[in-house]
Amino acid sequence: MAWRDSRSNRKKLFLYLAAIIVGVAAQVAISSFRENLNDSINEQSKELLGADLEVEKNSPFHDELEIYLDSLGGERSDALSFTSMAFFPKSGTTRLSQITALEGDFPYYGALKTDPQSASDTFQKTAGALVDEPILLQFGLQPGDSVKIGLVTYEIAGALQEIPGQPVAASFFGPRIFIPRENIEATGLLQRGSQLEYISYIKYPEGTDPILVESTLDAMNDSVRFGYDDVAERKEEVGEAILYLSNFLNLIGFIALLLGGIGVASSIFVYIRQKISTVAVLRCVGASSNQAMSIYLIQAVFMGFIGASIGAIIGSLIQLYLPVLVQDFVPVDIELALSWSSIFIGIITGVSISLIFALFPLLAVRKISPLFTLRSVDINLSKLLNWITRFTLFGLIGVSVVGYAWLMLNDILAALFFTLGLVFCLLLLSGIAFLIMKGAQKFNPKAFGYEFRQGLANLYRPNNQTSTLLLTFGLGVTLISSLYLTQDMLLGTINFDDGQDLPNLALYDIQYDQNEGVNKIILDNDMELLQNVPIVTMRLQSINDTTVAEFMADSSRKPRSWALNREYRSTYRDSLVSTETVESGVFVGTVTDPDDLVPISVSTDLMNDLNAQVGDTIVWDVQGIPISSFIAGTRTVDWQTPQPNFFVVFPTGVLEPAPQFFATTLNTPSREASLELQQKIVQAYPNVSAIDIGQVLETVRDFIDKITFVIQFIGLFSIITGLIVLAGSAATSRYQRIREAVLLRTLGAKQKQVIKIQVIEYVFLGIMAALTGLTLSVGASALLGYFYFDIDFVPNFTILGIETLILIGLVLTIGLLNTRGIHTRPPLEILRDQAA
Amino acid sequence: MNHILKIESLTRQFKSGDKTLTVVNNITFEIEEGISCAIVGPSGSGKTTLLGLSAGLDQPTSGDVTLNGINLKPLNEDQRAEVRNRHVGFVFQTFQLVPTLTAVENVMVPLELRGEATNQVRERAIGLLEEVGLGERSHHYPTQLSGGEQQRVAVARAFINDPKILFADEPTGNLDSETGEHIENLIFDLNRKQGTTLVLVTHDLDLADKCDRVIKLKNGEVDSDIFKSSEEAVA
Known about the structure:
The complex is a heterodimer of chains A (about 850) and B (about 240).
Chain A: H1 2-6, H2 10-43, E1 53-57, H3 63-71, E2 75-88, E3 93-103, E4 113-115, H4 119-122, E5 128-132, H5 133-139, E6 146-149, E7 152-162, E8 176-180, E9 197-203, H6 210-221, E10 227-230, H7 231-274, H8 276-284, H9 289-318, H10 322-326, H11 340-365, H12 387-409, H13 412-443, H14 450-457, H15 466-493, E11 505-511, H16 515-524, E12 529-543, E13 546-547, H17 548-553, H18 561-565, E14 567-572, E15 580-585, E16 598-603, H19 604-610, E17 617-622, E18 625-637, E19 648-650, E20 661-666, H20 671-684, E21 689-692, H21 693-732, H22 734-746, H23 751-789, H24 797-818, H25 829-835
Helix pairs in contact in A: 2-7, 2-9, 2-11, 2-21, 7-11, 7-15, 7-21, 9-11, 11-12, 12-13, 13-15, 13-23, 14-23, 15-21, 15-23, 21-24, 23-24
Chain B: E1 3-16, E2 19-32, E3 36-40, H1 47-54, E4 62-67, E5 70-71, H2 77-87, E6 88-91, H3 103-113, H4 118-131, H5 147-159, E7 165-169, H6 177-194, E8 197-201, H7 205-209, E9 213-218, E10 221-227, H8 230-234
Parallel strand pairs in B: 3-8, 3-9, 6-7, 7-8
Antiparallel strand pairs in B: 1-2, 1-4, 4-5, 9-10
Helix pairs in contact in B: 3-4, 3-5, 4-5, 5-6
């Protein structure tokens, strides 16, 4: 009976199932991908590190550590890692690069993938360099050409394609270059002030107990500070990061599925409404209320199963595309395979969602009275359900959502928050949708033309699905638009005008004796120095007579450990700069007796992290010389400006004799002039590094774009679900629309007028959906900006305008496609309809 | 007397698979301005098809329809729509109101489609609703009105454009006898008051009896065509 009954309406139901298809496809795609990624990480776990152990420190290892590492036996590779300008003579270009000077057979697991492959084995012996492939392509270089790093010119032995455990994204902020460690001193780059990282890679001999090594290193780390990572730890870190990302994507996918559920509920409501007379007849001829409900329950479950199965197939196909999206961010090669468990869970979830949401209208079927055969009544199905049933059903949906989120997040509290957040979002969207609809109804102005008023009035026609559409669309739009706005907000903070007063090139690591020479090159090239600041490196020794070691030993300490342990790069000058204002105390510009306590100025953020007060005394270790100071005042610093800013500023008259280097900023008139200047400086002073601020901003933009695209791709499923619900709704109301169009034609409407009414209706629907979603997304982005990024959010009306236009276009297209042909119906049908 | 409607050798055939079905077969008649005419006949006799062809809702296979002196044959659908909008009123068995519009807005539709000034149209619509006894309910939506009330709105709508001819298809078919009689009286009253020609399709012989002329169809052809004196007809 269920099968026979569905015969005339299968096409209509199938459209709604598309909502389940999309939801399940999103689910299966993401969870399959996650499973494949986890498998790949497990299989390639050792390649994540390329060795069993990695130890690193920003100075040469202490003897104790050296001795212990040697005692481990096995194999060892040593590397020095630093950033430096690389100059490519053939193309005449320079680029700030991440240099690794390697000695040894690293990687022990996996391989450095190079072109030609032999280059990874030979570059150390032939004093060659491996250079990131993208930079070679960008500058039109090939193996055989050369790269100059510091004072040494290396022949490019090969293009570096893959480093075990490093995602491609690692090269975003500077190309990676491998050179031999031997003779690295000849580059002239290992001077005081250079940021060097000493790294050792160890491959354990057979029988080594990694846990024992870990505990020994832990114990040693208390006295000798260094960083280390072993395979288990790296695997855990990577696994956690992947888990967070995929959980996040999974939940976004789940939202698409829930929207599909809302689509199913609304579609079955409409479907059952058309079936009321059938149900009444069945009840008349003796069907029990349960039998009547079973007919439609079987249809819902069957269709849910078909939809979920198709969704699972599509999802399995989509996962083939997902690695393309995220490969740059994951440190392993993703090996793809069918994930049966994901498919199974996807189908079960899809069927359950369609069943749970279908229960709302289906339980109402039980209440349809056989009396309806005798008397035609306009029934509101949802009113047939009493509050206990409704409450139970909402409870069931709530429990299912919490259950699923729990399964995904493995944390009941997070699952509860997710559900509450979702409920809040849906309530808020419903509220906004309700207000917009009421507003439209009130606004419908009598002064406007008939087509306008009729088009707008169609949105609140009886049995309309406007609210459902605004809800499903709204959530999708909120999701995608929030991402766009947040992305725009973040990019906005680094989007500086090309004004003359802001620097676009920064030079640093300029040694004391090079400063004048560098300045001369800049001035000879008719460019103006914006800033030329001395930098002195120092560490904290004590605050108010408590040493850093004593602070660190105290588990209840208030100062944060990064602030206690970091290497400070401070400057000295006699006045504030434009990005600074005194917050409290005073700024002292000059001292005459350096042996007195030196009055320093500390930035307010550092004051908080050091838990310090104005007047506190601080002893600094300035490269071996203790300097006693007191906090004379605090400054607020606008860190967002692209120029050197400092936590601590000393007065003049103290640090001048200390070893120091300089940083210089300037504004170059063009990109070409900037490149030419960089080239001249790097050739004269190879150790000087240049940061092309314009290029960095471009890279950051690319990076943010790539990340947001991944999230938007998943968020798109929600929009697709919204479109399907819209298509379904348009299809369902097609009969009613045909009747109206034909009636209007009969009363003398021209074809153009009928089309105009429909266009106005869908344009309004698009505007309302945009208003609903965009209002919430503006709110969400503003909150995110305020609480999380500490940025004042100003909505980008261009983005909002474009989004609105796209939405209107989408809604209009789908709506008109679904009502196509209506206006060509001959008016005679109005009489036939009556006769029927 | 002027003829408001001239039907000449009108034939309408439909294709059903390989077969050709002739629903209206070579019918010719003329209707004089201002009279009431009932078209009766058993189900399938071609009544509704003839009404549709006469009102320009459909194109004949052959033959001509001339409505208020305008030959409908050469006109396209939009031109025929304009003729209907200017000269024709309709009342349907199932009322056919636009559910999203209030009673007064429904009545205004034909004139609004012409783009006429809203305020004047509204006043006229309210006047008509008062005439049919619904002055108090002009701002109600169709779902808030009973069947009889909905049909009264439809009657008011049918007369808003001062039609030369009113086509009514089973206007009382969905109403109880008391309400049906009320609607019949309304239609005949307005018909008489405005001098509109009335063409109605009905199964109801009592209703047909009230008309000046009764055309009986059988198998798509005119079976009988009876003229009555007006005193006899509305008695």
